[in-house]
Automatic annotation (TrEMBL):
Domain of life: Bacteria
Source species of the chain: Pseudoalteromonas holothuriae
Listed GO MF terms: hydrolase activity, acting on ester bonds
UniProt keyword list: Hydrolase, Signal
UniProt-recorded name of the protein: Alpha/beta hydrolase
Keyword hit for Hydrolase: yes
Membrane-traversing stretches: none
Protein backbone atom coordinates (compact mmCIF):
# COMPACT_ATOMS: atom_id res chain seq x y z
CA UNK A 1 0.00 0.00 0.00
CA UNK A 2 2.81 2.40 0.94
CA UNK A 3 4.64 1.69 -2.34
CA UNK A 4 1.46 2.38 -4.33
CA UNK A 5 0.91 5.66 -2.51
CA UNK A 6 4.49 6.75 -3.15
CA UNK A 7 4.17 5.92 -6.84
CA UNK A 8 1.02 8.02 -6.99
CA UNK A 9 2.94 10.91 -5.48
CA UNK A 10 5.56 10.55 -8.18
CA UNK A 11 2.86 10.43 -10.84
CA UNK A 12 1.45 13.78 -9.79
CA UNK A 13 4.81 15.43 -9.19
CA UNK A 14 6.35 17.75 -11.76
CA UNK A 15 8.97 16.39 -14.12
CA UNK A 16 12.03 18.16 -15.47
CA UNK A 17 11.51 20.90 -18.01
CA UNK A 18 14.64 22.89 -18.76
CA UNK A 19 14.53 26.58 -19.68
CA UNK A 20 18.02 27.65 -20.73
CA UNK A 21 19.69 30.72 -22.19
CA UNK A 22 23.23 31.50 -23.41
CA UNK A 23 25.03 34.85 -23.58
CA UNK A 24 28.35 36.60 -22.88
CA UNK A 25 29.13 38.49 -19.67
CA UNK A 26 32.02 40.87 -20.37
CA UNK A 27 34.76 41.39 -17.83
CA UNK A 28 37.08 44.19 -16.76
CA UNK A 29 38.83 41.92 -14.25
CA UNK A 30 40.01 39.03 -16.43
CA UNK A 31 41.17 39.26 -20.03
CA UNK A 32 38.27 37.21 -21.35
CA UNK A 33 34.57 37.71 -22.00
CA UNK A 34 33.24 34.31 -20.90
CA UNK A 35 30.24 32.54 -22.38
CA UNK A 36 27.56 31.96 -19.77
CA UNK A 37 24.66 29.51 -19.83
CA UNK A 38 21.63 29.71 -17.54
CA UNK A 39 19.07 27.05 -16.73
CA UNK A 40 16.00 28.33 -14.91
CA UNK A 41 13.85 26.05 -12.74
CA UNK A 42 10.70 24.89 -14.50
CA UNK A 43 8.69 26.73 -11.81
CA UNK A 44 10.38 30.07 -12.45
CA UNK A 45 7.32 31.53 -14.19
CA UNK A 46 4.95 30.34 -11.43
CA UNK A 47 5.84 33.32 -9.23
CA UNK A 48 6.95 36.92 -9.69
CA UNK A 49 8.85 37.11 -6.41
CA UNK A 50 10.29 33.74 -5.35
CA UNK A 51 14.11 33.74 -5.27
CA UNK A 52 16.26 30.71 -6.09
CA UNK A 53 19.75 29.79 -4.85
CA UNK A 54 22.42 29.86 -7.54
CA UNK A 55 24.56 26.89 -8.59
CA UNK A 56 27.63 27.97 -10.57
CA UNK A 57 29.17 25.35 -12.87
CA UNK A 58 32.77 25.70 -14.03
CA UNK A 59 33.77 24.37 -17.46
CA UNK A 60 30.23 24.95 -18.62
CA UNK A 61 30.88 23.98 -22.23
CA UNK A 62 31.18 20.34 -21.14
CA UNK A 63 29.54 20.19 -17.69
CA UNK A 64 26.47 22.43 -17.90
CA UNK A 65 23.92 20.14 -19.52
CA UNK A 66 24.19 17.13 -17.22
CA UNK A 67 24.44 19.20 -14.03
CA UNK A 68 21.43 21.32 -15.00
CA UNK A 69 19.47 18.12 -15.74
CA UNK A 70 20.46 16.51 -12.42
CA UNK A 71 19.51 19.66 -10.53
CA UNK A 72 16.12 19.86 -12.24
CA UNK A 73 15.39 16.18 -11.63
CA UNK A 74 16.45 16.05 -7.98
CA UNK A 75 14.68 19.28 -7.08
CA UNK A 76 11.50 18.03 -8.74
CA UNK A 77 11.17 15.51 -5.92
CA UNK A 78 12.33 17.95 -3.20
CA UNK A 79 15.57 16.01 -2.71
CA UNK A 80 17.54 19.23 -3.15
CA UNK A 81 16.44 22.87 -3.45
CA UNK A 82 15.34 24.29 -6.76
CA UNK A 83 18.25 26.34 -8.09
CA UNK A 84 19.17 28.59 -10.96
CA UNK A 85 22.09 26.81 -12.66
CA UNK A 86 24.67 29.08 -14.27
CA UNK A 87 27.76 27.86 -16.09
CA UNK A 88 30.86 29.75 -17.13
CA UNK A 89 33.75 28.66 -19.34
CA UNK A 90 37.28 29.97 -19.58
CA UNK A 91 39.91 29.11 -22.18
CA UNK A 92 42.66 29.70 -19.61
CA UNK A 93 41.86 27.08 -17.01
CA UNK A 94 45.39 26.79 -15.67
CA UNK A 95 45.67 30.56 -15.40
CA UNK A 96 42.38 31.21 -13.62
CA UNK A 97 41.73 28.01 -11.68
CA UNK A 98 45.09 27.79 -9.86
CA UNK A 99 45.68 29.63 -6.56
CA UNK A 100 49.45 30.10 -6.89
CA UNK A 101 52.00 30.57 -9.67
CA UNK A 102 53.77 27.28 -10.46
CA UNK A 103 57.40 27.24 -11.53
CA UNK A 104 56.57 24.84 -14.35
CA UNK A 105 53.82 27.13 -15.66
CA UNK A 106 55.34 30.58 -15.32
CA UNK A 107 53.11 33.33 -16.69
CA UNK A 108 50.10 31.06 -17.10
CA UNK A 109 49.08 30.09 -13.58
CA UNK A 110 48.19 31.52 -10.19
CA UNK A 111 45.35 33.95 -10.98
CA UNK A 112 42.47 32.27 -9.17
CA UNK A 113 41.86 35.45 -7.18
CA UNK A 114 41.16 37.32 -10.41
CA UNK A 115 38.65 34.68 -11.50
CA UNK A 116 37.01 34.76 -8.08
CA UNK A 117 36.75 38.51 -8.51
CA UNK A 118 35.08 38.06 -11.88
CA UNK A 119 32.55 35.63 -10.39
CA UNK A 120 31.74 37.68 -7.30
CA UNK A 121 32.00 41.24 -8.63
CA UNK A 122 30.80 40.86 -12.22
CA UNK A 123 29.06 37.57 -13.03
CA UNK A 124 26.92 37.05 -9.92
CA UNK A 125 25.75 40.71 -9.79
CA UNK A 126 24.88 40.54 -13.50
CA UNK A 127 22.91 37.30 -13.06
CA UNK A 128 21.23 38.61 -9.89
CA UNK A 129 20.11 41.73 -11.72
CA UNK A 130 18.68 39.67 -14.58
CA UNK A 131 17.04 36.86 -12.57
CA UNK A 132 15.54 36.32 -9.11
CA UNK A 133 18.63 34.99 -7.36
CA UNK A 134 18.65 34.29 -3.62
CA UNK A 135 21.80 35.20 -1.62
CA UNK A 136 22.97 31.59 -1.39
CA UNK A 137 25.63 30.50 -3.85
CA UNK A 138 27.00 27.05 -4.71
CA UNK A 139 29.89 26.21 -7.05
CA UNK A 140 31.08 23.00 -8.68
CA UNK A 141 34.30 22.21 -10.51
CA UNK A 142 36.22 19.23 -11.89
CA UNK A 143 39.99 18.63 -11.93
CA UNK A 144 41.61 22.10 -12.01
CA UNK A 145 38.07 23.44 -11.52
CA UNK A 146 37.91 21.24 -8.42
CA UNK A 147 41.14 22.82 -7.22
CA UNK A 148 39.51 26.23 -7.66
CA UNK A 149 36.39 25.25 -5.68
CA UNK A 150 38.59 23.69 -2.98
CA UNK A 151 40.48 26.96 -2.66
CA UNK A 152 37.17 28.80 -2.22
CA UNK A 153 36.32 26.54 0.72
CA UNK A 154 39.39 27.80 2.58
CA UNK A 155 38.71 31.44 1.66
CA UNK A 156 36.67 33.15 4.36
CA UNK A 157 36.07 36.08 1.98
CA UNK A 158 34.36 33.87 -0.58
CA UNK A 159 30.62 34.41 -1.08
CA UNK A 160 30.02 30.71 -1.75
CA UNK A 161 28.47 28.53 0.93
CA UNK A 162 28.39 25.21 -0.92
CA UNK A 163 31.30 23.67 -2.85
CA UNK A 164 31.72 20.58 -5.02
CA UNK A 165 35.20 19.36 -5.97
CA UNK A 166 35.17 16.43 -8.39
CA UNK A 167 38.62 14.77 -8.69
CA UNK A 168 40.29 18.03 -7.62
CA UNK A 169 43.90 18.69 -8.62
CA UNK A 170 45.04 19.01 -5.01
CA UNK A 171 48.55 17.97 -6.09
CA UNK A 172 49.07 21.54 -7.28
CA UNK A 173 52.37 23.00 -6.01
CA UNK A 174 53.21 20.18 -3.64
CA UNK A 175 49.67 19.96 -2.26
CA UNK A 176 49.68 23.55 -1.10
CA UNK A 177 45.96 23.56 -0.27
CA UNK A 178 46.39 20.59 2.06
CA UNK A 179 49.13 22.48 3.90
CA UNK A 180 47.04 25.64 3.93
CA UNK A 181 44.14 23.75 5.48
CA UNK A 182 46.36 22.33 8.22
CA UNK A 183 47.37 25.88 9.17
CA UNK A 184 43.79 27.09 9.69
CA UNK A 185 42.37 27.74 13.14
CA UNK A 186 39.02 26.32 14.18
CA UNK A 187 37.39 29.77 14.05
CA UNK A 188 38.73 30.57 10.56
CA UNK A 189 35.29 30.40 8.94
CA UNK A 190 32.78 33.04 9.98
CA UNK A 191 29.81 31.31 8.30
CA UNK A 192 28.88 27.67 7.59
CA UNK A 193 30.34 26.01 4.50
CA UNK A 194 29.56 22.65 2.92
CA UNK A 195 32.08 20.76 0.80
CA UNK A 196 31.89 17.56 -1.26
CA UNK A 197 35.11 15.96 -2.52
CA UNK A 198 35.44 12.87 -4.67
CA UNK A 199 38.08 10.84 -6.44
CA UNK A 200 37.72 8.33 -9.28
CA UNK A 201 40.23 5.72 -10.48
CA UNK A 202 43.12 8.19 -10.53
CA UNK A 203 46.40 7.12 -8.99
CA UNK A 204 49.73 8.76 -8.21
CA UNK A 205 49.87 12.35 -6.98
CA UNK A 206 46.17 12.93 -7.74
CA UNK A 207 45.08 10.15 -5.37
CA UNK A 208 47.83 10.84 -2.81
CA UNK A 209 46.95 14.53 -2.47
CA UNK A 210 43.23 13.73 -2.21
CA UNK A 211 43.94 11.19 0.54
CA UNK A 212 46.13 13.73 2.34
CA UNK A 213 43.27 16.25 2.32
CA UNK A 214 40.77 13.68 3.63
CA UNK A 215 43.19 12.78 6.41
CA UNK A 216 43.64 16.43 7.30
CA UNK A 217 39.88 16.97 7.40
CA UNK A 218 39.48 14.00 9.72
CA UNK A 219 42.38 14.95 11.99
CA UNK A 220 41.62 18.67 12.22
CA UNK A 221 37.90 19.40 11.75
CA UNK A 222 36.62 22.97 11.51
CA UNK A 223 33.43 23.60 13.45
CA UNK A 224 31.67 25.44 10.60
CA UNK A 225 32.82 23.17 7.78
CA UNK A 226 30.54 20.26 6.88
CA UNK A 227 32.32 18.01 4.42
CA UNK A 228 31.47 14.82 2.54
CA UNK A 229 33.56 12.52 0.36
CA UNK A 230 33.09 9.69 -2.09
CA UNK A 231 35.33 7.29 -4.04
CA UNK A 232 34.24 6.19 -7.53
CA UNK A 233 36.83 3.51 -8.44
CA UNK A 234 34.90 2.41 -11.55
CA UNK A 235 34.96 5.91 -13.03
CA UNK A 236 37.81 7.54 -14.92
CA UNK A 237 38.98 11.11 -14.55
CA UNK A 238 36.90 12.06 -17.59
CA UNK A 239 33.72 10.12 -16.75
CA UNK A 240 33.44 10.95 -13.05
CA UNK A 241 31.74 14.40 -13.32
CA UNK A 242 28.47 12.78 -14.48
CA UNK A 243 27.96 10.53 -11.47
CA UNK A 244 30.04 12.71 -9.15
CA UNK A 245 27.91 15.84 -9.40
CA UNK A 246 24.61 13.99 -9.05
CA UNK A 247 25.97 12.17 -6.02
CA UNK A 248 27.40 15.40 -4.62
CA UNK A 249 24.07 17.20 -4.79
CA UNK A 250 22.34 14.35 -2.96
CA UNK A 251 25.03 14.00 -0.33
CA UNK A 252 25.65 17.66 0.36
CA UNK A 253 21.88 18.10 0.88
CA UNK A 254 21.57 14.75 2.68
CA UNK A 255 19.45 16.11 5.54
CA UNK A 256 17.71 18.94 3.70
CA UNK A 257 14.53 17.15 2.57
CA UNK A 258 11.88 17.51 5.29
CA UNK A 259 9.92 14.47 4.11
CA UNK A 260 12.31 12.02 2.39
CA UNK A 261 9.99 9.07 2.90
CA UNK A 262 6.40 8.93 4.22
CA UNK A 263 6.64 10.59 7.64
CA UNK A 264 4.58 13.62 6.64
CA UNK A 265 4.35 16.96 8.45
CA UNK A 266 1.80 19.74 8.77
CA UNK A 267 2.71 23.13 7.30
CA UNK A 268 3.90 24.75 10.54
CA UNK A 269 6.33 21.90 11.19
CA UNK A 270 7.70 22.21 7.67
CA UNK A 271 8.43 25.87 8.33
CA UNK A 272 10.05 24.99 11.67
CA UNK A 273 12.17 22.32 9.97
CA UNK A 274 13.80 24.83 7.62
CA UNK A 275 14.22 27.47 10.31
CA UNK A 276 16.33 24.93 12.19
CA UNK A 277 18.52 24.49 9.11
CA UNK A 278 19.76 28.09 9.19
CA UNK A 279 22.73 27.46 11.56
CA UNK A 280 23.81 24.48 9.46
CA UNK A 281 23.53 26.04 6.00
CA UNK A 282 23.79 29.73 6.79
CA UNK A 283 20.64 30.36 4.80
CA UNK A 284 16.87 30.16 5.34
CA UNK A 285 15.32 27.96 2.66
CA UNK A 286 11.69 28.90 2.07
CA UNK A 287 9.36 26.33 0.52
CA UNK A 288 9.45 26.13 -3.27
CA UNK A 289 6.68 25.12 -5.66
CA UNK A 290 8.05 21.58 -5.90
CA UNK A 291 8.18 21.25 -2.13
CA UNK A 292 4.60 22.42 -1.69
CA UNK A 293 3.56 19.93 -4.34
CA UNK A 294 5.52 16.95 -3.01
CA UNK A 295 4.84 17.55 0.69
CA UNK A 296 1.18 18.35 0.10
CA UNK A 297 0.47 15.29 -2.00
CA UNK A 298 2.42 13.00 0.31
CA UNK A 299 0.30 14.18 3.24
CA UNK A 300 -2.92 13.64 1.28
CA UNK A 301 -1.96 10.14 0.14
CA UNK A 302 -0.89 9.23 3.67
CA UNK A 303 -4.41 10.04 4.85
CA UNK A 304 -3.62 13.47 6.34
CA UNK A 305 -6.04 15.27 4.03
CA UNK A 306 -6.24 18.52 6.01
CA UNK A 307 -2.46 18.76 6.29
CA UNK A 308 -2.10 18.23 2.57
CA UNK A 309 -4.83 20.71 1.70
CA UNK A 310 -3.30 23.37 3.96
CA UNK A 311 0.11 22.89 2.35
CA UNK A 312 -1.25 23.02 -1.20
CA UNK A 313 -3.52 26.00 -0.44
CA UNK A 314 -0.50 27.90 0.79
CA UNK A 315 1.36 26.74 -2.30
CA UNK A 316 -1.15 28.30 -4.69
CA UNK A 317 -1.11 31.51 -2.64
CA UNK A 318 2.62 31.84 -3.20
CA UNK A 319 2.78 30.30 -6.68
CA UNK A 320 -0.55 31.42 -8.08
CA UNK A 321 0.45 30.73 -11.69
CA UNK A 322 1.37 27.10 -11.07
CA UNK A 323 -1.05 24.90 -12.98
CA UNK A 324 0.37 21.77 -11.38
CA UNK A 325 -0.16 23.07 -7.82
CA UNK A 326 -3.76 23.99 -8.64
CA UNK A 327 -4.26 20.55 -10.20
CA UNK A 328 -2.74 18.87 -7.13
CA UNK A 329 -5.01 20.95 -4.88
CA UNK A 330 -7.96 19.71 -6.96
CA UNK A 331 -6.78 16.16 -6.31
CA UNK A 332 -6.54 16.84 -2.57
CA UNK A 333 -10.04 18.32 -2.45
CA UNK A 334 -11.41 15.41 -4.46
CA UNK A 335 -9.91 12.83 -2.10
CA UNK A 336 -11.39 14.78 0.81
CA UNK A 337 -14.79 14.69 -0.96
CA UNK A 338 -14.91 18.48 -1.43
CA UNK A 339 -16.02 18.29 -5.05
CA UNK A 340 -17.09 21.93 -5.50
CA UNK A 341 -13.69 23.17 -4.37
CA UNK A 342 -12.02 20.44 -6.40
CA UNK A 343 -13.75 21.56 -9.59
CA UNK A 344 -12.88 25.22 -8.95
CA UNK A 345 -9.21 24.36 -8.44
CA UNK A 346 -9.25 22.15 -11.52
CA UNK A 347 -10.81 24.90 -13.63
CA UNK A 348 -8.07 27.27 -12.50
CA UNK A 349 -5.42 24.70 -13.34
CA UNK A 350 -6.95 24.16 -16.77
CA UNK A 351 -7.03 27.89 -17.54
CA UNK A 352 -3.39 28.30 -16.54
CA UNK A 353 -2.35 25.19 -18.46
CA UNK A 354 -3.99 26.43 -21.65
CA UNK A 355 -2.48 29.89 -21.29
CA UNK A 356 1.04 28.53 -20.83
CA UNK A 357 0.63 25.58 -23.21
CA UNK A 358 1.68 23.38 -20.31
CA UNK A 359 3.17 19.95 -20.90
CA UNK A 360 0.69 18.75 -18.26
CA UNK A 361 -2.32 19.96 -20.23
CA UNK A 362 -3.65 16.53 -21.16
CA UNK A 363 -3.42 15.29 -17.55
CA UNK A 364 -5.16 18.42 -16.27
CA UNK A 365 -7.89 18.07 -18.90
CA UNK A 366 -8.41 14.45 -17.84
CA UNK A 367 -8.91 15.34 -14.18
CA UNK A 368 -11.14 18.29 -15.11
CA UNK A 369 -13.38 16.11 -17.25
CA UNK A 370 -13.64 13.55 -14.46
CA UNK A 371 -14.57 16.21 -11.89
CA UNK A 372 -17.20 17.67 -14.20
CA UNK A 373 -18.69 14.21 -14.57
CA UNK A 374 -18.82 13.33 -10.87
CA UNK A 375 -20.02 16.84 -9.92
CA UNK A 376 -23.12 16.37 -12.09
CA UNK A 377 -24.30 13.36 -10.12
Amino acid sequence: MKVTIFLLVLLFTMVCQANSERFIVKSKIIDENPTVQVSLPDTYSHSDSYQYPLLLVLDGSTQFSHIAASTQFLSTYAIIPEMIVVSVSTQKRMTYFTPTAHEKFVGRSGKADLFKGYLQKELIPYISNKYRVAPYYAVTGHSLGGLFTSNLVLDNNSKFGLHISISPSLWWEKSILVNNYKALSDNHLSSPKRWFLSIASESGEMFESYTAMINALNEQPLSKLHWFSEHFPEETHDSTPLIGNARALKKIFNNWNAVPEIDVMPLHKLHDFYLKKIPEYGYHFTLSAHQYNVYGLKAVYEGKHQWGIEILEQGVKEFGKSEILWDSLATAYKLNKQLVKALHASNTALKLAKTSNSIYLSDIISQNEHLNTVSNF
